[in-house]
Every structure is written in structure tokens, then in C-alpha cells.
């Protein structure tokens, strides 16, 4: 029998353009997102017999699939590439029965349990518990040359990629705490770090500004913006604008640290988010304001944003979901 699409006749769902029709699949635990948080939640939930169903989303494997080498995830003494690590996590979750599927959750209704989710605008799922592991995306400047060098000199993660620029010159863009942290981290590895800031001051906390100022091999370029990143096959330099004058810097790496966008749009009508869109959880738990809905990984984390911290919080979410369902 084919699907019949129609709107549910109630106000909440009307607003969300909910579609129904066909069979509704019922699951104990639905996980949205396929980064380290989502797959770790799936490993724990499947081992707890929750038969989790995980939807991989727009970027299967999450942000790590855009990184080359991951050398700081425990258990990989020789390092591992981001895509391979995500395949490993997926295989581990599937080994215990997690059902990892292609597909995007296009809308949810979390007004009551079971929670409703629509996949790819068609298939409807009802879930006794929901784990949101939708992650965050790094913001980029939006330059064509930046796009061209992603993975060959342009990065949004100093802790992931900084190691490859040991002894070299790099630039970091941004004036917030992340940029200040990335610049000081890179200064410990690199010959020289240019910190490119568009205003005439840094937005970062006082302590971080002082750290930057104390670090001898960081040169802060206030009131500079990036016009273009240049190079033949890899990054060799950047053309900056300083009050109408072009300035060229010679660099091998270009790190963008202008903030992240948490992927909470899908749920923020139901689940409490802070002013930047990060999902709020009760301290030391993965519990959101909606009983039965848990959140983990970068969509709740504005500070650490590491694969290992995301994995740890995915574990918490599955344990919290298991306890919730048992009660
Ligand atoms: P922020 O939003 O604080 O800062 C972003 C920076 O990027 C700003 O300086 C901003 O400039 C600049 N920027 C934004 N868009 C552009 C652009 N198109 N071109 C050039 N520059 C641009 O983001 P962060 O990631 O630094 O921090 C996010 C939150 O996380 C903050 O609350 C921060 O305090 C927190 N954090 C805390 C840490 C800690 O406690 N250890 C570590 C890291 C982050 P402008 O100022 O001109 O808008």
C-alpha cells in the first residue's frame, strides 16, 4: 500500500506541516545524528536492548568525516582518518544490533510521548525516547578560495590539524575565545601564528587576551579582513585588507575560528536552547526539558567540541534513556 500524505488535524502538527500515511514504525529509542555522540549512544543503547534506530542525517559520520588524520582519540595509537574512525564506530554500533539508516529527520513533534518524527518528509516514526546528537557546524568566511583549500591548508579545528603545521607559519581568523585558544595552541607547535581580527579589539575573555599577548610568536593583526587565500595546490599565503590597503602574509595553514552553529533548528521549538542555539541539559545529565528527550555531543557543547567528549556525552544520553524507559 502506498503512502497517503495528509496533515494531522491539530494545531501543533499543522504548524510543522506534519505528514502521515502508510505504516507508522514504533521504536524504543530514536537517535538523530551519526557523529561520535550518536554512534556511542547507539552502542550503549543497543547493548541495553533498546534496539535503537539511528538516522545519519545530511552528513553521515558528522564533522569528523571532513578531517584527515585523528590522532587524539584514545585507542588508535597510530592515528586514524576521520572517515575510517566513523566507519569503525558505525560497525561497532551495528555489531550490537543498532539500526543505522540513511535519511534525514525532517520534522518532529515532541509535544507528548510517543514522540513523532518524519523521515525525508515521508516516513513516520514513533519513539518512546529520543536522543538528539545533531552536532554543530563550523562557520567559514564564505570565500571561494577557502572552499578550494579545505583539507589542504584550510581547517576549522586546530586541535585536529595543527600538528601538520609544526615549525610552519599559520594564520587564525577570529577574535573570540576559540580563536585565542587555537592561536595559543598553534603557537606551541608552529613557528609563527598570525591572528586576524576584523575589529580593533578582541572579543575573547581578558585571561585569553592576556595569554595571546604574552605569547611571543603570535602577531595580532587588528582591523584586518581576509580577501583571498592563495597557493597552487596547497595554501601558500593570504591576501588581507587593512583599511583599504592590501597586505600579503606567507602561511601554510589557515585556521577559521569564527564560531560554530549548533544544529538545533529541528527541535528548538520543543527543547530549550540558549541564546546561541545550544540545547540546554540539566547539569551532569543529558536530560533536556522534555522528559524522554536527551541531547549529547556538539549540539550541547560550546566549550570542548572534541570527538572524545562527544562520545562520552553520547554514552550518558544512552544511559539516561535506558534509565528513563526502565522507570
Ligand atoms: P564567538 O562568537 O565568541 O567569536 C567569534 C569571533 O569570530 C568574533 O571575534 C567575531 O568577530 C569573529 N567573526 C565572526 N564572523 C566573522 C567573519 N565573517 N570574519 C571575520 N571574523 C568573524 O565564537 P567562539 O567560538 O570564539 O566562542 C563561542 C562561545 O564559546 C563563547 O561564549 C566563548 O566564550 C565560548 N568559549 C569558551 C572557551 C573556554 O571557556 N575555554 C573556549 C572557546 C569558546 P566580531 O567580534 O567582530 O563579531
Question: What features would you describe in this structure?
Answer:
With 327 residues, this protein is an alpha/beta fold. It has 8 helices and 19 strands. The chain folds into 2 domains: 194 residues, FAD/NAD(P)-binding domain; 117 residues, 3-Layer(bba) Sandwich (FAD/NAD(P)-binding domain). The protein is 24% helix and 27% strand. α2 runs parallel beside α3, α2 runs parallel beside α8 and α6 packs parallel to α7. The chain is elongated, with a radius of gyration of 22 Å. The structure holds NADPH dihydro-nicotinamide-adenine-dinucleotide phosphate.
Give the SSE layout.
Layout: H1 11-15, E1 24-32, H2 36-47, E2 53-55, E3 69-70, E4 80-81, H3 82-95, E5 99-101, E6 105-109, E7 115-119, E8 123-132, E9 136-138, H4 144-148, E10 154-155, H5 158-161, E11 169-173, H6 177-187, E12 192-196, H7 206-214, E13 218-221, E14 224-230, E15 237-242, E16 245-250, E17 253-256, E18 260-262, E19 293-295, H8 307-326
Parallel strand pairs: 1-2, 1-8, 2-5, 8-19, 10-17, 11-12, 11-17, 12-13
Antiparallel strand pairs: 3-4, 6-7, 7-8, 9-18, 14-15, 15-16
Helix pairs in contact: 2-3, 2-8, 6-7
The site of NADPH dihydro-nicotinamide-adenine-dinucleotide phosphate has 16 residues, from α6.
Primary descriptors:
8 helices; alpha/beta; single chain; FAD/NAD(P)-binding domain; binds NADPH dihydro-nicotinamide-adenine-dinucleotide phosphate; elongated; 7-stranded mixed beta sheet; 2 domains; disordered N terminus
What is the first-to-last residue Cα distance? 37 Å
| Average residue pLDDT | 91
Secondary-structure element order, as H and E?
Answer: HEHEEEHEEEEEHEHEHEHEEEEEEEH
Radius of gyration: 22 Å
* Total beta-strand segments: 19
Tally the helices: what do you get? 8
CATH architecture of the largest domain: 3-Layer(bba) Sandwich
Helix content: 10-25%
Q: Which structural class should the secondary elements be placed in?
A: alpha/beta
- CATH superfamily membership of the largest domain: FAD/NAD(P)-binding domain
Unreliable residue runs? 1-19
Oligomer: single chain
The CATH C-level name of the largest domain is Alpha Beta
Instruction: Give a short account of the largest sheet.
Output: 7 strands, mixed
Percent strand? 25-35%
Which fold name corresponds to the CATH topology of the largest domain?
FAD/NAD(P)-binding domain
Q: Can you list the ligands bound to this structure?
A: NADPH dihydro-nicotinamide-adenine-dinucleotide phosphate
Number of domains: 2
Amino acid at each position: 500500500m502506498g503512502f497517503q500524505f495528509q496533515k494531522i488535524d491539530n494545531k501543533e502538527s499543522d504548524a510543522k506541516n506534519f505528514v502521515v500515511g502508510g505504516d507508522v514504525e514504533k521504536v524504543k529509542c530514536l537517535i538523530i545524528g551519526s557523529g561520535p555522540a550518536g554512534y556511542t549512544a547507539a552502542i550503549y543503547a543497543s547493548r541495553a536492548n533498546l534496539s535503537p534506530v539511528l538516522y545519519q542525517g545530511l552528513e553521515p559520520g558528522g564533522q569528523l568525516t571532513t578531517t584527515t588524520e585523528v590522532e587524539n582519540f584514545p585507542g588508535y595509537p597510530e592515528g586514524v582518518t576521520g572517515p575510517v574512525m566513523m566507519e569503525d564506530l558505525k560497525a561497532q554500533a551495528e555489531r550490537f544490533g543498532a539500526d543505522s539508516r540513511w535519511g534525514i529527520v525532517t520534522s518532529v513533534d515532541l509535544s507528548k510521548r510517543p514522540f513523532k518524527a518524519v523521515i525525508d518528509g515521508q516516513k513516520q516514526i514513533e519513539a518512546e525516547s529520543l536522543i538528539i546528537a545533531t552536532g554543530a557546524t563550523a562557520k567559514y568566511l564564505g570565500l571561494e578560495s577557502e572552499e578550494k583549500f579545505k583539507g589542504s591548508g584550510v581547517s576549522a579545528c586546530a586541535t585536529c590539524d595543527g600538528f601538520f603545521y609544526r615549525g610552519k607559519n599559520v594564520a587564525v581568523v577570529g577574535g573570540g575565545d576559540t580563536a585565542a585558544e587555537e592561536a595559543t595552541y598553534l603557537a606551541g607547535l608552529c613557528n609563527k601564528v598570525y591572528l586576524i581580527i576584523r575589529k580593533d579589539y578582541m572579543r575573547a575573555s581578558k585571561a585569553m587576551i592576556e595569554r595571546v599577548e604574552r605569547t611571543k610568536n603570535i602577531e595580532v593583526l587588528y582591523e584586518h579582513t581576509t580577501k583571498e587565500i592563495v597557493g597552487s595546490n596547497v595554501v601558500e599565503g593570504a591576501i588581507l585588507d587593512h583599511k583599504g590597503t592590501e597586505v600579503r602574509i606567507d602561511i601554510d595553514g589557515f585556521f577559521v575560528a569564527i564560531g560554530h552553529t549548533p544544529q538545533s533548528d529541528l527541535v528548538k521549538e520543543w527543547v530549550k536552547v540558549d541564546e546561541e542555539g545550544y540545547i540546554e541539559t540539566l547539569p551532569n545529565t543529558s536530560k533536556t526539558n522534555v522528559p524522554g528527550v536527551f541531547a549529547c555531543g556538539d549540539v550541547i557543547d560550546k566549550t570542548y567540541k572534541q570527538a572524545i567528549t562527544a562520545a562520552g556525552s553520547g554514552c550518558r544520553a544512552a544511559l539516561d534513556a535506558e534509565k528513563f524507559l526502565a522507570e
